[in-house]
TrEMBL record:
<feature type="domain" description="NADH-Ubiquinone oxidoreductase (complex I) chain 5 N-terminal">
    <location>
        <begin position="68"/>
        <end position="116"/>
    </location>
</feature>
<dbReference type="GO" id="GO:0015297">
    <property type="term" value="F:antiporter activity"/>
</dbReference>
<keyword id="KW-0406">Ion transport</keyword>
<feature type="transmembrane region" description="Helical">
    <location>
        <begin position="687"/>
        <end position="707"/>
    </location>
</feature>
<feature type="transmembrane region" description="Helical">
    <location>
        <begin position="408"/>
        <end position="431"/>
    </location>
</feature>
<dbReference type="Pfam" id="PF13244">
    <property type="entry name" value="MbhD"/>
</dbReference>
<dbReference type="Pfam" id="PF00361">
    <property type="entry name" value="Proton_antipo_M"/>
</dbReference>
<keyword id="KW-0812">Transmembrane</keyword>
<feature type="transmembrane region" description="Helical">
    <location>
        <begin position="167"/>
        <end position="189"/>
    </location>
</feature>
<feature type="transmembrane region" description="Helical">
    <location>
        <begin position="626"/>
        <end position="647"/>
    </location>
</feature>
<keyword id="KW-0472">Membrane</keyword>
<keyword id="KW-0813">Transport</keyword>
<feature type="transmembrane region" description="Helical">
    <location>
        <begin position="373"/>
        <end position="396"/>
    </location>
</feature>
<feature type="transmembrane region" description="Helical">
    <location>
        <begin position="500"/>
        <end position="522"/>
    </location>
</feature>
<feature type="transmembrane region" description="Helical">
    <location>
        <begin position="276"/>
        <end position="296"/>
    </location>
</feature>
<dbReference type="Pfam" id="PF20501">
    <property type="entry name" value="MbhE"/>
</dbReference>
<dbReference type="GO" id="GO:0006811">
    <property type="term" value="P:monoatomic ion transport"/>
</dbReference>
Length: 791
């Protein structure tokens, strides 16, 4: 239903784009205050969506929409349930602190206003993606996130690594977008609707459809590229070339979760099948293990967090793929917790880099005294990432373990192994730079301005407060989102303190114990994993470069084959394809026309055909190109005479004019171009060209015979006869057709003639300059009266 009371949602969806328009101007006028002022836009949207929490938590959904192009089934419509609401709150809530953070992190940057514009455009694209109800609108926002993320990742475009990372992200996610477009069209074709809210009401229609497999694969293509699932995970760590505000926002809380959002959104209508519950856990589990292993190998703070983001996305895909109610609740909880602690840790990494001058964990230590606030925020976020109480990450880990125990112990082992390594990475990021003896850093380390540490502090506090108020968190946010993903109402309370000793608690204790043990030997683990990866050598990232290089080489060869720069090759190709189009269908389908018999020609008609034949002989026997061009005009004049004999004097006059002008222009051009006077083609080439020409003439002749043997349909004739005078106010039907009924066609023909004339003019001028360049000017004898000569 459409609710007039919620029409403000249209403004909320447009507000980030409007703010992006004025962001550069505000930055020029207000300087550092611009970030604080622009942050009010996502904050206001966040407050607006908070007002929807009571209605959505009660099981209601809010839909608003207007018809944009109803003939194509396109509506500007938005759908808000538990899934889209929580995503909208994360996008705008974390986005508020990202805008503030960017103001401090990029302070003094020459292009800071442009950065504000990019980040706000991305915010609008991501917000529209999770709110969109219309499938076409969802796809448009989906592609817009790829474009804006390309701009953000390549923000520092003077660096080659930034340009490569941006191009890589665009190509990978753009390819996934094309896959999603196919999936969207297939879903609309099967269900008969383009509104996601209506698709969710179709039950098993998609699962029972013969098109389920292509729909499943195309949706997965979009989701796996966007959410960096193995082996397409390589673009996300490379995207760390972007400024840290981009990493903290796009690659922890928003864009990379778009694929997870798509899978969660379609789970009620695509999930629950053997294919779904096999492919998603398989790829998700592999991504989880690969991501955590590569994260331990890194020494750059941002790369460590980037690879754990890959791992976390794999965990979310694995949990969603189980189609189990408790596992899905664990996925929802973990998505919420991950957005909070990972956004905080990325901003902490940026603070350390900004104030100490390096992100290399081997060159950091003892920053606790110099950066106490940043250290506190990092520690709180790492405790949540490690899954320790009393943080929301602990509750998420308990629930997901409980759900996986009911599904598969193999998945339990994978989840435990992944969480152990994330425990190690989380505390490595939070403890290694801050504890131990003071290390000399490139910059004198000190606490950053409030704009840098406000975001980590608030997000870190949110991981604690949402856990302490887990009853409200569950009822208001987690349960409604779980119901939207599972497709049915769900029950069950969340507790910070486990209510009983079960497998979930035991697995948590095992994770903590193994995590502590692994953390103590993290340097050894890093060395072993590095040796393993180095021994493997080739990987998807290198494969991407090889694929791009192969594509460029193939395109170059194909271009050289199809565009050799020789006009005769182009003309021959066009004519051969035309002849094949004319003849092959008639031969293949046996539709060749009957040959005419008993032709009765008058003497003057026969004379005209004889003139045309003589002209053809003259062309073939012509000794120079110029004579051939003049002789070619004989055929045109013969056609003009035929028009005149059969009662079309206007067409006859037009044909006379066109033929005369063509001969004159061609003769003029031939005299100006530097071409041989005679045609020196070898006999073999003449035979090939003659065969093509005869085949072309035969093809057009047979086509015309086929047309004349079809019963005449007077429908268009009667139409033009009836309406030429009444509508177009013209008695000459042919002129009315050309000027009025086919006016755009005539305009196109005139445009083609004009372009051709310009091309001929350019060709003649270029040829003239070439001759001037080749023929040296005669040097005049020096003038004895010239003072330069005398001197």
């Amino acid at each position: 239903m459409t609710s007039d009371a919620h029409d403000w949602i249209f403004l909320a969806a447009a507000a980030p784009f409007l703010a992006a328009l004025v962001a550069p101007l505000l930055h020029r006028l207000l300087g550092p205050l611009a970030g604080w002022l622009l942050a009010l836009v996502p904050l206001a949207i966040f407050v607006g969506f908070c007002s929807l929490i009571p209605a959505v938590s009660a099981g209601n959904a809010v839909t608003v929409g207007i018809d944009w192009m109803p003939a194509y089934g396109f509506r500007l419509s938005y759908f808000i349930d538990g899934l889209s609401l929580l995503f909208a709150l994360l996008i705008t809530g974390i986005g508020t602190f990202i805008v503030i953070y960017a103001g401090g992190y990029l302070k003094g940057h020459a292009q800071q206003g442009r950065f504000y514009s990019y980040i706000l455009m991305f915010m609008g694209a991501m917000l529209g993606l999770v709110l969109a109800d219309n499938l076409i609108l969802l796809f448009i926002y989906w592609e817009l996130t790829s474009i804006t993320s390309f701009l953000l990742i390549g923000f520092d475009h003077t660096r080659r690594a930034s340009r490569r990372a941006a191009l890589q992200a665009l190509l990978v996610t753009g390819a996934g977008g094309l896959s999603l477009m196919a999936g969207v069209l297939l879903i609309a074709a099967v269900t008969g609707t383009k509104e996601m809210s209506q698709v969710l009401l179709t039950g098993d229609m998609l699962r029972s459809s013969a098109l389920y497999l292509p729909i499943f694969l195309t949706v997965l293509g979009g989701a796996f590229t966007k959410s960096a699932q193995f082996p397409l995970h390589f673009w996300l760590p490379n995207a760390m070339e972007a400024p840290t505000p981009v990493s903290a926002y796009l690659h922890s809380a928003t864009m990379v979760k778009a694929g997870v959002y798509l899978l969660m959104r379609t789970q009620p209508v695509l999930g629950g099948t053997d294919l779904w519950m096999t492919v998603l856990p398989l790829f998700g589990g592999v991504t989880l293990l690969v991501g955590t292993l590569l994260a331990v190998r890194q020494t750059d703070l941002k790369l460590m967090l980037a690879y754990t983001t890959v791992a976390s996305l794999g965990l979310l895909v694995m949990l969603t793929g189980t189609s189990n109610e408790i596992a899905i609740k664990g996925a929802v909880l973990y998505l919420f917790a991950h957005s909070l602690f990972k956004g905080a840790l990325f901003m902490v990494a940026g603070c350390v880099d900004h104030e100490a001058g390096t992100r290399d964990i081997r060159k950091l230590g003892g920053l606790r005294q110099a950066m106490p606030i940043t250290f506190g925020a990092a520690l709180v976020a790492a405790i949540s990432m490690a899954g320790l109480p009393p943080m929301i990450g602990f509750i998420a880990k308990e629930v997901l373990y409980e759900g996986l125990v009911d599904v598969s112990w193999l998945l339990v082992i994978v989840a435990v192994a992944g969480n152990v390594l994330m425990f190690v990475v989380g505390f490595s990021v939070a403890l290694k730079p801050f504890l131990g003896p003071q290390v000399h850093t490139p910059k004198h380390a000190h606490e950053g301005p409030v704009s840098l540490w406000l975001g980590p502090v608030v997000l870190g506090a949110a991981t604690l407060l949402t856990a302490l108020a887990v009853g409200w968190t569950g009822d208001a946010l987690i349960v409604p989102m779980t119901a939207a993903v599972y497709g049915q109402p769900v029950t069950g309370e969340l507790h910070l303190i486990p209510q009983y000793v079960g497998w979930a608690l035991l697995l948590s204790l095992v994770t903590i114990g193994l995590g502590v043990a692994a953390y103590r030997v993290v340097d050894v683990l890093r060395s072993r994993i590095d040796h393993l990866v180095s021994a493997i050598g080739w990987g998807p990232d290198r494969g991407f470069d090889q694929f791009v290089a192969l594509t460029v080489a193939g395109a170059t060869r194909l271009t050289r084959l199809l565009q050799p720069g020789r006009l005769e090759v182009y003309l021959t190709t066009v004519i051969v394809l035309t002849v094949a189009t004319l003849l092959l269908p008639m031969i293949a389908y046996g539709t060749l026309p009957s040959m005419p018999t008993g032709i009765d020609l008058t003497y003057y008609e026969g004379t005209i055909f004889l003139i045309a034949l003589l002209g053809l002989v003259a062309v073939l026997r012509a000794r120079t190109r110029l004579i051939a061009i003049v002789s070619l005009g004989i055929q045109g004049f013969a056609v003009a005479l035929i028009f005149m004999l059969f009662g079309a004097p206007d067409l006859s006059f037009t044909q006379f004019m066109v033929e005369t002008l063509s001969v004159v222009i061609l003769a003029l051009v031939m005299t100006r171009l530097n071409v041989a006077e005679r045609d020196h083609r070898p006999t073999r080439q003449r035979l090939i060209d003659g065969t093509i020409a005869v085949a072309g003439g035969a093809g057009f002749g047979l086509l015309l015979l086929s047309v004349t043997q079809v019963p005449f349909n007077r429908k268009l004739t009667d139409f033009f006869d009836a309406y030429s005078l009444t509508i177009a106010h013209g008695r000459n039907i042919v002129n009315v057709i050309i000027v009025d009924f086919r006016g755009l066609d005539t305009l196109g023909e005139i445009t083609v003639v004009m372009i051709t004339g310009l091309a001929i003019l350019a060709l003649v001028r270029i040829s003239g300059r070439a001759r001037i360049a080749v023929v040296p000017e005669e040097r005049a004898a020096p003038d004895a009266t010239d003072p330069r000569v005398r001197s």
